[in-house]
Amino acid sequence: MTQETYDLIAIGTGSAASSVITRCAEAGWRVAVIDEREFGGTCALRGCDPKKVLAGAAELIDWNERMQGKGIQGQATINWSELMAFKRTFTESIPRASEDQFKQAGMDTFHGKASFVDEDHIQVGEEVLHGKHILIATGARPASLEIEGSEHLIYSDDFLDLEQLPDRLVLVGGGYIAFEFAHIAARAGTEVHILHRSEQPLKSFDAELVESLLQKSKEIGIHVHLNAEVKSIRQEGNAYVVHGTRNGADHQWQCGLVVHGAGRVPNVDGLELEKANVSYSKKGITVNEYLQSDSNPRVYAAGDVTDTKGLPLTPLAGQESRAVSFNLLEGNQHKPNYKVMPSIVFTVPALGAVGMSTEQAKKEGYEVQVNDMSKWYTYKRTHEKFAMAKVVIDKSTGRILGAHVLGSKTEELINLFAMAIQFNLTIDQLNTMNFAYPTAASDLGSLI
In order of start, what are the domains of the chain with their CATH numbers? Predict the structure, then answer.
Protein backbone atom coordinates (compact mmCIF):
# COMPACT_ATOMS: atom_id res chain seq x y z
CA MET A 1 0.00 0.00 0.00
CA THR A 2 1.48 3.35 -1.07
CA GLN A 3 0.68 6.87 0.03
CA GLU A 4 1.04 10.15 -1.86
CA THR A 5 0.28 13.66 -0.64
CA TYR A 6 -1.74 16.08 -2.79
CA ASP A 7 -2.77 19.68 -2.35
CA LEU A 8 -6.18 18.65 -3.68
CA ILE A 9 -7.94 15.34 -4.15
CA ALA A 10 -11.09 15.60 -6.26
CA ILE A 11 -13.66 12.80 -6.26
CA GLY A 12 -15.65 13.15 -9.48
CA THR A 13 -14.85 14.54 -12.93
CA GLY A 14 -18.08 16.26 -14.02
CA SER A 15 -19.25 19.86 -14.07
CA ALA A 16 -18.95 20.26 -10.29
CA ALA A 17 -15.26 19.36 -10.37
CA SER A 18 -14.01 20.87 -13.62
CA SER A 19 -13.28 24.46 -12.56
CA VAL A 20 -11.79 23.41 -9.24
CA ILE A 21 -9.27 20.92 -10.59
CA THR A 22 -8.36 23.07 -13.60
CA ARG A 23 -7.73 26.28 -11.67
CA CYS A 24 -5.90 24.54 -8.83
CA ALA A 25 -3.63 22.73 -11.29
CA GLU A 26 -2.97 26.02 -13.11
CA ALA A 27 -2.02 27.55 -9.76
CA GLY A 28 0.67 24.90 -9.32
CA TRP A 29 -1.18 22.65 -6.91
CA ARG A 30 -0.56 18.94 -6.98
CA VAL A 31 -3.96 17.50 -7.90
CA ALA A 32 -5.33 13.96 -7.86
CA VAL A 33 -8.56 13.16 -9.70
CA ILE A 34 -10.64 10.06 -8.94
CA ASP A 35 -13.69 8.65 -10.70
CA GLU A 36 -15.25 5.20 -10.45
CA ARG A 37 -16.85 5.66 -13.88
CA GLU A 38 -15.61 7.07 -17.18
CA PHE A 39 -14.05 10.51 -16.87
CA GLY A 40 -16.33 13.34 -17.96
CA GLY A 41 -19.30 13.24 -15.61
CA THR A 42 -23.00 12.58 -15.93
CA CYS A 43 -24.09 15.56 -18.05
CA ALA A 44 -21.62 15.03 -20.87
CA LEU A 45 -21.70 11.23 -20.96
CA ARG A 46 -25.07 9.97 -19.74
CA GLY A 47 -27.25 12.98 -19.03
CA CYS A 48 -28.11 16.36 -20.51
CA ASP A 49 -25.98 16.30 -23.65
CA PRO A 50 -26.76 12.85 -25.10
CA LYS A 51 -30.40 13.20 -24.02
CA LYS A 52 -30.76 16.40 -26.02
CA VAL A 53 -29.32 14.74 -29.11
CA LEU A 54 -32.19 12.26 -28.91
CA ALA A 55 -34.66 15.06 -28.13
CA GLY A 56 -33.57 16.77 -31.34
CA ALA A 57 -34.86 13.81 -33.34
CA ALA A 58 -38.16 13.99 -31.45
CA GLU A 59 -38.43 17.69 -32.35
CA LEU A 60 -37.98 16.88 -36.02
CA ILE A 61 -40.71 14.22 -35.91
CA ASP A 62 -43.09 16.60 -34.17
CA TRP A 63 -42.37 19.37 -36.69
CA ASN A 64 -42.95 16.95 -39.56
CA GLU A 65 -46.29 15.79 -38.15
CA ARG A 66 -47.52 19.32 -37.46
CA MET A 67 -46.76 20.48 -40.99
CA GLN A 68 -48.38 17.61 -42.87
CA GLY A 69 -50.65 19.10 -45.54
CA LYS A 70 -49.02 22.51 -45.15
CA GLY A 71 -46.26 22.05 -47.68
CA ILE A 72 -44.65 19.01 -46.08
CA GLN A 73 -45.28 15.54 -47.49
CA GLY A 74 -44.08 12.14 -46.34
CA GLN A 75 -43.78 10.86 -42.80
CA ALA A 76 -40.37 11.10 -41.15
CA THR A 77 -39.41 8.20 -38.87
CA ILE A 78 -36.63 7.59 -36.37
CA ASN A 79 -34.07 4.90 -37.07
CA TRP A 80 -33.11 4.23 -33.47
CA SER A 81 -29.83 2.42 -34.09
CA GLU A 82 -28.63 5.20 -36.42
CA LEU A 83 -29.71 7.84 -33.91
CA MET A 84 -27.78 6.08 -31.14
CA ALA A 85 -24.71 5.88 -33.37
CA PHE A 86 -25.01 9.63 -33.95
CA LYS A 87 -25.39 10.18 -30.21
CA ARG A 88 -22.18 8.30 -29.55
CA THR A 89 -20.25 10.74 -31.75
CA PHE A 90 -20.86 13.26 -28.95
CA THR A 91 -19.89 10.99 -26.05
CA GLU A 92 -17.33 8.37 -27.10
CA SER A 93 -14.29 10.65 -27.21
CA ILE A 94 -14.97 12.44 -23.92
CA PRO A 95 -13.49 9.99 -21.35
CA ARG A 96 -10.11 9.70 -23.07
CA ALA A 97 -9.99 13.39 -23.98
CA SER A 98 -10.85 14.41 -20.42
CA GLU A 99 -8.22 12.19 -18.86
CA ASP A 100 -5.59 13.28 -21.37
CA GLN A 101 -6.40 16.90 -20.58
CA PHE A 102 -6.04 16.27 -16.85
CA LYS A 103 -2.70 14.52 -17.31
CA GLN A 104 -1.39 17.25 -19.59
CA ALA A 105 -2.24 19.74 -16.84
CA GLY A 106 -0.07 17.73 -14.44
CA MET A 107 -2.80 15.94 -12.54
CA ASP A 108 -2.64 12.32 -11.42
CA THR A 109 -5.70 10.30 -12.43
CA PHE A 110 -7.20 7.32 -10.63
CA HIS A 111 -9.97 4.94 -11.66
CA GLY A 112 -11.95 3.26 -8.90
CA LYS A 113 -14.24 3.74 -5.94
CA ALA A 114 -13.01 6.39 -3.51
CA SER A 115 -13.66 6.13 0.22
CA PHE A 116 -12.41 8.06 3.22
CA VAL A 117 -9.98 6.38 5.59
CA ASP A 118 -9.99 9.34 7.97
CA GLU A 119 -10.40 13.11 7.77
CA ASP A 120 -7.68 13.66 5.17
CA HIS A 121 -6.94 10.28 3.59
CA ILE A 122 -8.71 8.67 0.64
CA GLN A 123 -8.42 5.06 -0.43
CA VAL A 124 -8.83 4.11 -4.08
CA GLY A 125 -8.03 0.53 -4.96
CA GLU A 126 -4.85 -0.47 -3.14
CA GLU A 127 -3.62 3.10 -2.79
CA VAL A 128 -4.14 5.58 0.02
CA LEU A 129 -3.84 9.26 -0.86
CA HIS A 130 -3.32 12.11 1.58
CA GLY A 131 -5.11 15.33 0.73
CA LYS A 132 -4.53 18.77 2.21
CA HIS A 133 -7.89 19.62 0.65
CA ILE A 134 -10.56 17.27 -0.67
CA LEU A 135 -13.41 18.03 -3.08
CA ILE A 136 -16.47 15.79 -3.19
CA ALA A 137 -18.22 16.16 -6.55
CA THR A 138 -19.84 12.76 -6.98
CA GLY A 139 -23.20 14.05 -8.23
CA ALA A 140 -26.44 12.15 -7.79
CA ARG A 141 -27.71 8.62 -8.38
CA PRO A 142 -31.20 7.19 -8.97
CA ALA A 143 -33.24 7.03 -5.77
CA SER A 144 -33.70 3.53 -4.35
CA LEU A 145 -37.26 2.29 -4.80
CA GLU A 146 -38.90 -0.08 -2.34
CA ILE A 147 -40.43 -2.20 -5.08
CA GLU A 148 -40.38 -5.97 -5.26
CA GLY A 149 -38.40 -6.86 -8.37
CA SER A 150 -36.65 -3.48 -8.55
CA GLU A 151 -33.62 -5.28 -9.98
CA HIS A 152 -35.53 -5.38 -13.27
CA LEU A 153 -35.51 -1.58 -13.56
CA ILE A 154 -33.16 0.04 -16.02
CA TYR A 155 -31.80 3.53 -15.40
CA SER A 156 -31.29 6.68 -17.43
CA ASP A 157 -27.76 5.56 -18.32
CA ASP A 158 -29.17 2.35 -19.80
CA PHE A 159 -31.95 4.10 -21.71
CA LEU A 160 -29.46 6.47 -23.32
CA ASP A 161 -27.46 3.49 -24.53
CA LEU A 162 -30.25 1.19 -25.76
CA GLU A 163 -29.51 -0.53 -29.06
CA GLN A 164 -33.23 -0.81 -29.74
CA LEU A 165 -36.48 0.34 -28.16
CA PRO A 166 -39.18 -2.08 -27.05
CA ASP A 167 -42.69 -1.96 -28.48
CA ARG A 168 -44.01 -0.92 -25.06
CA LEU A 169 -42.18 1.03 -22.35
CA VAL A 170 -43.12 1.79 -18.73
CA LEU A 171 -41.52 4.73 -16.90
CA VAL A 172 -41.81 4.75 -13.11
CA GLY A 173 -42.07 8.34 -11.85
CA GLY A 174 -43.37 11.64 -13.14
CA GLY A 175 -40.38 13.97 -13.16
CA TYR A 176 -37.95 15.38 -15.74
CA ILE A 177 -36.44 12.07 -16.77
CA ALA A 178 -39.73 10.24 -17.21
CA PHE A 179 -41.33 12.90 -19.40
CA GLU A 180 -38.24 13.60 -21.49
CA PHE A 181 -37.66 9.92 -22.22
CA ALA A 182 -41.39 9.41 -22.86
CA HIS A 183 -41.45 12.12 -25.52
CA ILE A 184 -38.36 10.68 -27.20
CA ALA A 185 -39.61 7.07 -27.16
CA ALA A 186 -43.13 7.96 -28.31
CA ARG A 187 -41.75 9.83 -31.34
CA ALA A 188 -39.71 6.71 -32.13
CA GLY A 189 -42.89 4.62 -32.30
CA THR A 190 -42.95 3.04 -28.84
CA GLU A 191 -46.12 2.80 -26.75
CA VAL A 192 -45.26 4.65 -23.54
CA HIS A 193 -46.82 4.51 -20.07
CA ILE A 194 -45.80 6.89 -17.25
CA LEU A 195 -46.76 5.73 -13.74
CA HIS A 196 -46.78 8.61 -11.26
CA ARG A 197 -47.79 8.01 -7.67
CA SER A 198 -49.50 11.38 -6.99
CA GLU A 199 -52.00 13.68 -8.68
CA GLN A 200 -49.48 16.26 -9.91
CA PRO A 201 -46.42 15.35 -12.02
CA LEU A 202 -43.57 17.82 -12.61
CA LYS A 203 -44.42 19.54 -9.33
CA SER A 204 -41.79 22.26 -9.60
CA PHE A 205 -43.47 23.67 -12.72
CA ASP A 206 -46.64 25.70 -13.24
CA ALA A 207 -49.66 23.39 -12.86
CA GLU A 208 -51.61 24.84 -15.80
CA LEU A 209 -48.65 24.53 -18.14
CA VAL A 210 -48.08 20.97 -16.94
CA GLU A 211 -51.72 20.22 -17.73
CA SER A 212 -51.18 21.49 -21.27
CA LEU A 213 -48.10 19.31 -21.58
CA LEU A 214 -50.14 16.34 -20.40
CA GLN A 215 -52.67 17.08 -23.13
CA LYS A 216 -49.91 17.17 -25.75
CA SER A 217 -48.45 13.96 -24.31
CA LYS A 218 -51.82 12.26 -24.67
CA GLU A 219 -52.12 13.43 -28.28
CA ILE A 220 -48.86 11.74 -29.23
CA GLY A 221 -49.87 8.49 -27.56
CA ILE A 222 -48.23 8.75 -24.14
CA HIS A 223 -50.38 7.22 -21.39
CA VAL A 224 -49.89 9.15 -18.14
CA HIS A 225 -51.32 7.26 -15.17
CA LEU A 226 -51.68 9.49 -12.11
CA ASN A 227 -52.18 8.16 -8.58
CA ALA A 228 -50.47 5.00 -9.81
CA GLU A 229 -48.28 3.23 -7.28
CA VAL A 230 -45.95 0.43 -8.37
CA LYS A 231 -45.87 -2.58 -6.05
CA SER A 232 -43.78 -5.10 -7.97
CA ILE A 233 -42.08 -5.91 -11.25
CA ARG A 234 -42.01 -9.47 -12.54
CA GLN A 235 -40.18 -10.86 -15.53
CA GLU A 236 -42.10 -13.15 -17.85
CA GLY A 237 -39.86 -14.46 -20.60
CA ASN A 238 -38.51 -11.48 -22.52
CA ALA A 239 -41.18 -9.15 -21.12
CA TYR A 240 -42.09 -7.60 -17.78
CA VAL A 241 -45.31 -7.21 -15.84
CA VAL A 242 -45.60 -4.19 -13.56
CA HIS A 243 -48.11 -4.69 -10.75
CA GLY A 244 -49.56 -1.79 -8.80
CA THR A 245 -52.61 0.31 -8.12
CA ARG A 246 -54.25 3.13 -10.04
CA ASN A 247 -56.62 5.34 -8.06
CA GLY A 248 -56.64 2.62 -5.41
CA ALA A 249 -57.64 -0.24 -7.74
CA ASP A 250 -55.29 -3.08 -8.67
CA HIS A 251 -53.75 -2.77 -12.12
CA GLN A 252 -50.95 -4.24 -14.18
CA TRP A 253 -48.95 -3.08 -17.17
CA GLN A 254 -47.06 -5.35 -19.57
CA CYS A 255 -43.99 -3.98 -21.31
CA GLY A 256 -40.62 -4.72 -22.83
CA LEU A 257 -38.66 -2.50 -20.42
CA VAL A 258 -39.26 -0.66 -17.14
CA VAL A 259 -37.30 2.58 -16.69
CA HIS A 260 -36.53 4.30 -13.38
CA GLY A 261 -37.69 7.91 -13.67
CA ALA A 262 -38.52 8.52 -10.02
CA GLY A 263 -35.88 11.05 -9.07
CA ARG A 264 -32.27 11.13 -7.95
CA VAL A 265 -30.50 11.49 -4.60
CA PRO A 266 -27.01 12.66 -3.57
CA ASN A 267 -24.40 10.04 -4.40
CA VAL A 268 -22.66 9.53 -1.06
CA ASP A 269 -22.90 5.74 -0.84
CA GLY A 270 -19.58 4.09 -0.12
CA LEU A 271 -17.68 7.31 0.58
CA GLU A 272 -17.46 6.40 4.28
CA LEU A 273 -18.17 10.02 5.22
CA GLU A 274 -18.48 9.13 8.91
CA LYS A 275 -14.79 8.20 9.01
CA ALA A 276 -13.94 11.68 7.72
CA ASN A 277 -16.30 13.52 10.07
CA VAL A 278 -18.19 14.86 7.05
CA SER A 279 -21.80 15.62 7.94
CA TYR A 280 -24.62 15.05 5.47
CA SER A 281 -28.40 15.03 5.26
CA LYS A 282 -30.92 13.46 2.91
CA LYS A 283 -30.28 16.44 0.62
CA GLY A 284 -26.53 15.91 0.53
CA ILE A 285 -23.32 17.00 2.21
CA THR A 286 -23.97 19.88 4.56
CA VAL A 287 -21.78 22.88 3.82
CA ASN A 288 -21.40 26.51 4.82
CA GLU A 289 -22.04 29.42 2.47
CA TYR A 290 -18.61 28.88 0.90
CA LEU A 291 -19.35 25.21 0.10
CA GLN A 292 -16.97 24.01 2.80
CA SER A 293 -18.02 21.06 4.94
CA ASP A 294 -19.52 22.35 8.17
CA SER A 295 -17.82 19.54 10.11
CA ASN A 296 -14.49 18.95 8.33
CA PRO A 297 -12.79 22.15 7.05
CA ARG A 298 -10.47 20.20 4.73
CA VAL A 299 -13.45 19.10 2.66
CA TYR A 300 -15.45 21.08 0.10
CA ALA A 301 -18.38 19.83 -1.95
CA ALA A 302 -20.09 21.04 -5.12
CA GLY A 303 -22.93 20.04 -7.40
CA ASP A 304 -25.77 17.60 -6.88
CA VAL A 305 -24.07 15.93 -3.91
CA THR A 306 -24.40 19.06 -1.74
CA ASP A 307 -27.20 20.27 0.50
CA THR A 308 -27.54 23.85 -0.78
CA LYS A 309 -30.20 26.18 -2.17
CA GLY A 310 -29.10 25.25 -5.67
CA LEU A 311 -31.20 23.07 -7.94
CA PRO A 312 -29.60 19.89 -9.35
CA LEU A 313 -28.68 21.57 -12.63
CA THR A 314 -25.43 21.53 -14.60
CA PRO A 315 -25.01 25.35 -14.69
CA LEU A 316 -25.41 25.49 -10.90
CA ALA A 317 -22.84 22.71 -10.47
CA GLY A 318 -20.46 24.68 -12.66
CA GLN A 319 -21.04 27.85 -10.69
CA GLU A 320 -20.44 26.04 -7.40
CA SER A 321 -17.25 24.59 -8.87
CA ARG A 322 -16.01 28.09 -9.73
CA ALA A 323 -16.85 29.31 -6.22
CA VAL A 324 -14.93 26.44 -4.61
CA SER A 325 -11.91 27.08 -6.84
CA PHE A 326 -11.73 30.71 -5.69
CA ASN A 327 -12.26 29.76 -2.05
CA LEU A 328 -9.50 27.17 -2.11
CA LEU A 329 -7.02 29.48 -3.79
CA GLU A 330 -7.94 32.80 -2.19
CA GLY A 331 -9.66 31.89 1.07
CA ASN A 332 -13.39 31.74 1.72
CA GLN A 333 -14.75 34.84 -0.01
CA HIS A 334 -16.93 33.59 -2.88
CA LYS A 335 -20.53 32.45 -2.52
CA PRO A 336 -22.50 30.81 -5.33
CA ASN A 337 -25.33 32.88 -6.75
CA TYR A 338 -28.70 31.14 -6.48
CA LYS A 339 -30.80 34.15 -7.44
CA VAL A 340 -31.58 32.84 -10.92
CA MET A 341 -31.93 29.12 -11.63
CA PRO A 342 -33.68 28.54 -14.97
CA SER A 343 -34.77 24.97 -15.56
CA ILE A 344 -36.26 23.23 -18.58
CA VAL A 345 -37.92 19.90 -19.23
CA PHE A 346 -36.82 18.98 -22.75
CA THR A 347 -40.09 17.49 -23.86
CA VAL A 348 -41.58 18.49 -27.22
CA PRO A 349 -42.77 21.18 -26.62
CA ALA A 350 -40.39 22.13 -23.81
CA LEU A 351 -41.51 23.33 -20.40
CA GLY A 352 -39.48 25.93 -18.52
CA ALA A 353 -39.43 28.00 -15.35
CA VAL A 354 -37.30 30.65 -13.70
CA GLY A 355 -37.80 32.75 -10.60
CA MET A 356 -40.97 33.14 -8.56
CA SER A 357 -43.78 30.65 -9.09
CA THR A 358 -47.24 31.86 -10.07
CA GLU A 359 -48.59 30.30 -6.89
CA GLN A 360 -46.20 32.33 -4.73
CA ALA A 361 -46.91 35.44 -6.80
CA LYS A 362 -50.62 35.21 -6.06
CA LYS A 363 -49.92 34.79 -2.34
CA GLU A 364 -47.72 37.89 -2.32
CA GLY A 365 -50.01 39.98 -4.51
CA TYR A 366 -47.87 40.26 -7.63
CA GLU A 367 -49.36 40.44 -11.11
CA VAL A 368 -49.16 37.38 -13.34
CA GLN A 369 -49.31 38.20 -17.06
CA VAL A 370 -50.76 35.20 -18.93
CA ASN A 371 -50.54 34.76 -22.70
CA ASP A 372 -51.74 31.94 -24.93
CA MET A 373 -49.18 32.23 -27.74
CA SER A 374 -50.55 29.48 -29.99
CA LYS A 375 -52.13 32.03 -32.36
CA TRP A 376 -49.03 34.22 -32.46
CA TYR A 377 -47.03 34.25 -35.69
CA THR A 378 -43.97 32.66 -34.05
CA TYR A 379 -45.94 29.49 -33.34
CA LYS A 380 -48.71 29.60 -35.92
CA ARG A 381 -46.20 29.49 -38.78
CA THR A 382 -45.31 25.91 -37.74
CA HIS A 383 -48.84 24.98 -36.65
CA GLU A 384 -48.15 24.70 -32.93
CA LYS A 385 -51.17 24.35 -30.67
CA PHE A 386 -49.33 24.34 -27.36
CA ALA A 387 -47.59 27.62 -26.55
CA MET A 388 -48.22 29.60 -23.38
CA ALA A 389 -46.30 31.97 -21.12
CA LYS A 390 -46.86 33.36 -17.63
CA VAL A 391 -44.74 36.24 -16.36
CA VAL A 392 -44.65 37.44 -12.75
CA ILE A 393 -44.24 41.22 -12.58
CA ASP A 394 -43.72 43.66 -9.73
CA LYS A 395 -45.75 46.61 -11.00
CA SER A 396 -44.31 48.94 -8.36
CA THR A 397 -40.77 48.57 -9.74
CA GLY A 398 -41.44 47.29 -13.26
CA ARG A 399 -39.18 44.31 -12.61
CA ILE A 400 -39.76 40.72 -13.66
CA LEU A 401 -39.79 38.24 -10.78
CA GLY A 402 -40.54 34.98 -12.57
CA ALA A 403 -41.44 33.39 -15.89
CA HIS A 404 -43.04 30.10 -16.93
CA VAL A 405 -43.16 28.97 -20.55
CA LEU A 406 -44.44 26.05 -22.60
CA GLY A 407 -43.60 25.90 -26.29
CA SER A 408 -40.97 25.30 -28.94
CA LYS A 409 -39.16 28.54 -28.04
CA THR A 410 -38.98 27.90 -24.30
CA GLU A 411 -35.18 27.72 -24.23
CA GLU A 412 -34.76 31.15 -25.81
CA LEU A 413 -37.45 32.87 -23.73
CA ILE A 414 -36.50 31.37 -20.36
CA ASN A 415 -32.90 32.48 -20.76
CA LEU A 416 -34.01 36.01 -21.69
CA PHE A 417 -36.20 36.17 -18.61
CA ALA A 418 -33.39 34.72 -16.48
CA MET A 419 -31.07 37.50 -17.66
CA ALA A 420 -33.72 40.12 -16.93
CA ILE A 421 -34.20 38.81 -13.39
CA GLN A 422 -30.47 38.47 -12.74
CA PHE A 423 -29.70 42.06 -13.72
CA ASN A 424 -32.92 43.62 -12.38
CA LEU A 425 -33.96 44.85 -15.81
CA THR A 426 -37.26 46.69 -15.89
CA ILE A 427 -40.07 46.33 -18.41
CA ASP A 428 -39.24 49.80 -19.75
CA GLN A 429 -35.61 48.83 -20.27
CA LEU A 430 -36.57 45.61 -22.05
CA ASN A 431 -39.00 47.47 -24.28
CA THR A 432 -36.21 49.75 -25.50
CA MET A 433 -34.28 46.74 -26.80
CA ASN A 434 -34.37 46.12 -30.55
CA PHE A 435 -34.55 42.36 -31.10
CA ALA A 436 -34.18 40.71 -34.51
CA TYR A 437 -37.61 40.14 -36.05
CA PRO A 438 -39.48 37.85 -36.42
CA THR A 439 -38.11 35.78 -33.54
CA ALA A 440 -39.28 34.51 -30.18
CA ALA A 441 -37.22 37.27 -28.57
CA SER A 442 -39.15 39.91 -30.51
CA ASP A 443 -42.31 38.61 -28.79
CA LEU A 444 -40.89 39.61 -25.41
CA GLY A 445 -42.57 43.02 -25.35
CA SER A 446 -45.98 41.40 -25.78
CA LEU A 447 -45.34 39.02 -22.87
CA ILE A 448 -44.67 41.75 -20.33
Answer: 3-142+265-330 (3.50.50.60), 150-262 (3.50.50.60), 349-447 (3.30.390.30)
